[in-house]
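Supplementary Methods, section 5.1.

A reviewer requested that the exact input to the structure prediction be made available. We therefore reproduce it here, unchanged from the version used in the analyses.
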Amino acid sequence: MSWLLQWVLPNEVKQIDDLNRKDIKQSMQQLHNFVLQHHEEVKKVYVWVYLHQPFSVRRLLELETQWENKLQMKIHKEVELIPVVRKKGNWFDDILIEVNQVIHRICNEEPFDEMVLVSCGGQSLLQQAVLIGGIKTFADRFCLMLQDQATGEVLRQQFYDSPYKKSWLQLYQHLIHDYNYAGALKLVEGLEKNKKTQFIKLLLEVQHLRENFNFEEAYEKFREAKKIHPASNLRILGTEIILQHLNGEMGEQKKELEQILELYRHIKALLLKENYPSFLTRFYRAREAVLKYIVKYGSDEEIQLPRVSSIYQFIDQIEELYEEGKINRFFGVYFYIKSSNVANALNVRNKSFIGHNRKPISKNAILYEYYGSRNIKIPQAAERFLGDTRIMLRDLGGALDDNLEEMNKYLIELMISAAREGDVKVD
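The structure derived from this sequence is encoded token-by-token as follows.
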């Protein structure tokens, strides 16, 4: 089997130029030497970077591009930089969940190769998280290589009987990382024997109903959950506000805007899990919803438009309204939605089996068409799409938040806590 090499930088990174810092240059030289010795076995290198503080989307994209390009020139292997932001306080459980999510993605992308973690000395908390996550997810396809810094001697260790190997709890986490709430609900059937597990099940039902845009019933389940556990945190409070908006408690315009935001939350999730047919379907509907929102709320008077047979005719109608001065808001949103970036990406849908043709759907085609060039990596093109989406939604009066991802983390934290306290007895 080929190796998916995991390399964890020993110290925090504060800025892009830290690549030239002495300790990081030394670590990169060690990586170069190791890859040189095992060139035939190494398929791809994943470099884990512990960020001292969050970077902006654009700055993070710049960090990944510069570091990956420089490392690839040095070691002549494909490199993926994995930045993990420093957490405050006792953060190991949080970082373990985040690391597990990344390793789960790697396992899905590379189902037949071996994950190899190289340790060249003391283990940081991030390296410990990669070790535990790797054993849990890759099981017999994971190994740790301990390299003596003085002699260069390498000790290879497999984990055939590790207590960290796959378990019921690990399967639950994988389902949540995949946004597979229906699967998670099946997994917890029969475990609702106390308030904590009842609370978890109700929150899973809320997320599953949101996924299917059944907002009224989702809010009912949420209120049931609040009766069991009335204390709020930021994740619960944020979800409650979203559900209030989606059910019209703050007025019709807030409801329709929140429906657009919810569409984009799920578009983001589908992009992250690489479900491109569903991504294109939701993205197509989101474009239509945004255009209708512009017509309804971009004018000071009610506008009635005759029905048309295509989205492009609808865009022409809106452009005419802008030219006549009948719509005087959301200019940036309109130009983004009608842009060639969006049109070209959605044209992949039109030519595919979910549109008007029988062609397969290629993630490369979608994101290259959106970006307008093949001179970019797929993860970076996806991040560019999300960055543009954030700007567009801000102009519309909303924001692309991380509510689904934060609720996923919360659902995992709740189940880990329930298992530790004996409220869930599973293998």
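The radius of gyration is 24 Å. These observations are discussed further in the main text.
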